[in-house]
Specification:
Blueprint lengths: L24 E6 L3 E6 L17 E7 L6 E7 L2 E6 L3 E6 L11 E6 L1
Antiparallel strand pairs: 1-2, 2-3, 3-4, 5-6, 6-7
Length: 111
């Protein structure tokens, strides 16, 4: 039997490299210099969805050249998708109680 670090023509390639960890990594975007992602910040509750993530989400950046995980924003309400352009980072927050409230937002942060 092969271990995850072994490979053969008949097996899947080895597992990728972990760049960062979090409670609930969700959205991801990449530009020429960095990788950006959101972390929902809470565990999924089978009875209530993402309610536990209100106020605990975050937005992160990791330079492709290496270095620490940089937290760009914290205290987000259930952070969702993320994208970037030449000048800014954009992300969504699902709100304080996703699927039950209408306080979701789209936000922008200059690079």
């Amino acid at each position: 039997m092969l271990t995850p670090s072994q490979s053969s023509p008949e097996s899947a390639p080895a597992v990728g490299t972990t760049l960062a960890t979090g409670i609930g990594p969700y959205g991801i975007a990449v530009d020429d210099v960095a990788v950006y992602w959101t972390d929902r910040g809470g565990a999924f509750d089978l009875d209530g969805g993402w309610k536990a993530c209100a106020g605990t989400g975050s937005l992160h950046k990791l330079l492709k050249s290496g270095g620490p995980d940089l937290t760009l924003a914290s205290g987000l309400n259930c952070a969702g998708g993320v994208t970037v352009d030449a000048t800014a980072i954009y992300w969504t927050e699902l709100g304080t109680q996703p699927n039950t409230t209408t306080d979701g937002t789209v936000k922008k942060l200059a690079k």
